[in-house]
């Protein structure tokens, strides 16, 4: 089966589904990457400020909590990057 046939069949299936349920034909709104990165940076800055205050107020316990939080964030970021890189 060629790519054109597969694409045509896909378009027919999507057309039938959209005819049955018009909400499926609406485009999905995506958050632009620039906005997403800005929100992520602001949230990260607020969390970092909170952790900085925690380190001052609680001393060694605050430092330990900050280290665990940073390690978890780095681990999550590396894991997500690897998963996204393997999908491409």
Structure description:
- 82% of the residues lie in helices and 0% in strands.
- Helix 2 runs antiparallel to helix 3.
- By secondary structure, the chain is an all-alpha fold.
- The protein starts with a helix and ends with a helix.
Brief write-up:
The protein is mostly helical. The protein has helices at residues 3-20, 33-58, 60-87.
Name the descriptors:
88 residues, mainly alpha, 82% helix
- Average pLDDT works out at 87
Question: Share of helix among residues?
Answer: over 70%
Distance between the termini: 24 Å
- Give the biggest beta sheet: none
Secondary-structure element pattern, one letter each = HHH
Number of helices: 3
Radius of gyration: 23 Å
> Helix/strand/pairing class, anyone?
mainly alpha
Give the helix/strand layout.
Layout: H1 3-20, H2 33-58, H3 60-87
Helix pairs in contact: 2-3
């Amino acid at each position: 089966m060629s790519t054109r046939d597969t694409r045509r069949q896909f378009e027919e299936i999507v057309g039938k589904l959209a005819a049955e349920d018009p909400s499926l034909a609406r485009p999905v709104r995506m958050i632009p990457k620039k906005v997403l990165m800005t929100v992520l940076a602001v949230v990260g800055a607020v969390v970092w400020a909170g952790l900085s205050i925690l380190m001052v107020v609680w001393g060694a316990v605050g430092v330990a909590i900050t280290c665990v939080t940073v390690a978890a964030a780095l681990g999550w970021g590396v894991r997500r990057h690897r998963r996204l890189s393997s999908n491409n």
